[in-house]
Structure of Xylanolytic transcriptional activator regulatory domain-containing protein:
Amino acid sequence: MVIAGQKRKLPTRWSANADDEHRQLPATAASSSFTPVPDSDVVDRGILTMAKATELFARYRDRMAPNLPAVVHPPSMTVSDLRKNKPVLFLSTMAAAASEDNDLQKVLSREVMLVFADKVFLSGDKSVEIVQALLVAVVWYWPPEHFEELKFYQLVHSAAVMAIDIGLGKSFGNKQPGTGLYNWQSHPMRRQALPDPTTVESRRTWLACFFMASNTSISLRRPNLIRWTPFMAESLEVLESSPDAAPSDKYFCHLVWTHKLGEEVSNQFALEDATARVNINEARTQHTLRALERELENKRDSVPEDIMRPALTLGFEMINLYMHEIVLHSKTAVDQIRPPFNTDAFKEGVIGPNLSPPPTSMPSLHVLAQSTASSPRFSHWTW
């Protein structure tokens, strides 16, 4: 009998001394194209010097992370500390920060993907560090040469699923001994204890998982794996008020809030459902839209000027477009406004041939035009 969490033992015939014809793997399986991950890291193997690593670490910390501070490092942390204590996050950070050196970035990106394959999918390792490494890899994802090789959606959900598995999404502080959840946390067969989800670092990491999952859901019109919860609202308050929070956490909280509203917009107008149709002329739809507009405007007005950076401005504009796109759904198939766009679908206009936009949709059309006109200011903006 095997207890839950206990590793199964191989039968005797599969032991090293067993003489069984089935013990040998087929030649096709033995000649796998997967490259084993070396024991030494990229510095030991001469791919990266410590001087270059220090330069890349400074670039990430000073120029990249402030724009989207999903994963931040303490001011006292050095690149040597990161390499020693969090080697997976170190490699992911190096790959992200090497984007200005195309050849080095390609090599480091392959290295980090090999590590993810080994630790996440082969070994089944789970930790806050690996979740953070996945987040860094996807936030600063460099698109491959071929569109079908895009992996950011898989990386986002790998980070989200792992965060759920290690319990970042809820506090266990109120659980009493004897409940199943408490016993699973303290299970003797666990390789390592679960992290404390109430620390500032864990809360920031969990909110970053929500942010990225919601972002890809809005962009690709796919189901959102992580939904807004009271624990997330609590985490926002902690990051905004805790003395242990990073200076960039208040800014990050505003970014997360925009996607919280984006989830509410999606729920109200069923934007994840390709078969749903929302009529802009219905009183209920107009009332809901005006309420969302007021909520967005009030939040935008409450953001201090020193925090309203380009990425946050773009976030507000994106949600503004998102909530008003329902006007385009009138007499228009949803698939016609999904990328890649087919220009032939718009030859007769977005409303449809021989039709005029209803009067109630004109404010929404105005917002769409206004937001679209302002967005290109950031289209070529680099992190």
Summary: DSSP finds 14 helices and no strands in the chain. The longest helix spans residues 102-122. Confidence is low (pLDDT under 50) at residues 10-32, 176-183, 348-360, 375-383. The radius of gyration is 24 Å.
